[in-house]
Amino acid sequence: MTDQLDIARPARSTLPLTRIVTIGVLVALAVVPPLAKLSGYDFYLDLATRLVILAIAAVSLNLILGYGGMVSFGHAAYIGIGAYAVGIPAYHASYGEFDAIASYNGFFQIAIAVTASAVFALITGALCLRTRGVYFIMITMAFAQMVFFLFVSMETYGGDDGLVIDTRSELPLISLDDALTLYFVCWAALTVSVYLVHRITNSRFGLALQGAKGNEARMKALGFNTYAYRLTAYVIAGAMCGFAGALLGNFTTFISPEMIDWTRSGELIFMVLLGGTGTLIGPVVGAVVFIGLEEILSDITIYWHLPFGILLILTVLFFRGGIMGMVAMLVESRRD
Amino acid sequence: MDLTLVVIQCLNGMQLGILLFLLASGLTLTFGIMDFVNLAHGSLYMVGAFLCATLTFWTGSFIWGVLLALPLTALAGIAVEFIVVRHLYSRDHLDHVLATFGLILCIDTMTHLIWGAEGIAVPLPAFLNGQVELFAGIIFPSFRLLIIGAGLIVAGGLYYLVNHTRLGMLIRAGASNRTMVSALGVDIQTLFTLVFALGAVLAGLAGMLIAPITEASIGMGNEIIITAFVVIIVGGIGSMKGAFIAAMLIGLIDTLGRSYIDDLFKLAMSTEAAETAAPAVSAMLIYILMAVVLTFRPQGLFPPKVR
Known about the structure:
The complex is a heterodimer. By secondary structure, chain A is mainly α. Chain A has one domain: ABC transporter involved in vitamin B12 uptake, BtuC, CATH 1.10.3470. Helices cover 74% and strands 1% of the residues of chain A. Chain A contains 14 helices and two strands, in the order ααααααβααααβαααα. Chain A has helices spanning 2-8, 16-38, 42-67, 76-95, 106-128, 133-153, 179-201, 204-214, 216-221, 226-252, 262-275, 282-300, 305-318, 322-335, and strands spanning 163-164, 254-255. Chain A starts with a helix and ends with a helix. Residues 1-9 of chain A have low confidence and may be disordered. Chain B is 75% helix and 2% strand. Chain B has eleven helices and two strands; from the N terminus they run ααααββααααααα. Chain B has a two-stranded antiparallel ribbon. In chain B, a hairpin with a 5-residue loop joins β1 and β2. The longest helix of chain B is centred in the first third of the chain and has 32 residues, at 3-34. Chain B is globular, with a radius of gyration of 20 Å. The model of chain B has no long low-confidence stretch (mean pLDDT 87).
């Protein structure tokens, strides 16, 4: 069994250029935004914090979309669940009631964020993964919308209007109120996420997952329970994205159902596609380009959604491999 | 529980169901025949509403507004098909959803550019703006009754079109074997354009019918489109009968759930607990229904026969 899997092992990070790009992007993210902050451009640090958090979400989506072939159009639900897992305990710690979950403790909140996301992913994933193709896309979308309406209906936590988080998660030794600290926490989380996905996709589990994407019938014939592999990946991705949501709640100090709107899920997919599906650093690159474009275009005109939409359509029509696909092509052409 | 109110809520549920059917039928047609997933279907619903609003003001009559807006919505649909959609038929579903997601951004922004950020209220003519007494004591707005009537007529017309006309025969043939139909000399590209335009008209009609009740506003399609997806998932993607039955079911369950689930909960728990839980549960009700249907029938209630 192991031998066959070894043969199937894709030509991955042996390409030096992709590895250089991966490390380069992470190092640049570690250096440039803090430098901007130190030079007085606080705004760019904020932008970069949002970018890095969304990049974690995109990396987690890429695990199921790029490596597992599962087009989840409801991934923003986990961002919402994670953010509310910070907001709700903090709310009760400030205003009483539900003492059992009232807490500012960051570890407690993150534990809730990750657990709740994983449980939601397990329940909905078990149902969604019974279906294929368009059904899967629409059902993941519908379940995210269910979470959206659930949060809208919870008047205690602001309903439609959302809720301001008065106090950020409290962690030992560091304070998330410091913008630079918060940024480095997010950056570290991103780096860990990328490394985690790297390890997962190169493990036996990850290869079986990719095998199920490539040829499900063959993987089943080889004795793999593809459903279980997919579901496990789905839960891991959900938990990872829930963690990103907890960070986003801490960054914006504001939670609202709008975070879960299905268009947010669409944006996450666009980031993954823009950067390159099924590549390790692609989603991060995609998030950088996405947030950058959003920033530049919305600066020029309030109608920035129009050029943005056109760009999205053009990307789908003519730019299949994404940015990392271009990088890989460069590598190939240099070899020839 | 007041029986009169129950009847009125059922009628409201039917009215929502009819709107959902108008949206879902277009989705299910384009999916069944072209294997195409159109997220931007909700944008055509919005375009219909805005066109109708403008034309109602120009002509001074809601009826003329609708009659003129219908062909214009068809043109909008054809334009969208011609510029973007037809390049996507050979692609996979991920490309469909992403490109049509881009289309939503474009269409919403263009609507913003043309009509401005504010919503437009659509005035009704006096004879539609009243109420009628159906049975003893049951008074219902006449316009909502018109929506139900119009929707049922359209549903009947669609049934006739699909099952008893030459075009319908081609549509059914195209759904079961596209390659064979085009090999027999049918211009499949034109057929696809026609079907897409038909879907656009149906979505636009739904938008025109709802505009006098809510108003024509940007993003109005983006919420209801998900509910329309739930409808076609429950009904079985590609099935017209399934879309109709599921639309009615979901319209009724959603409306009745919002009205009566707190009463139902009060039977089992304290008033306070019921009032906290009821809004959350009624908001999730149709998704729970979807989950239940999927557990037992992953292909929906009426999956189309595939050859």
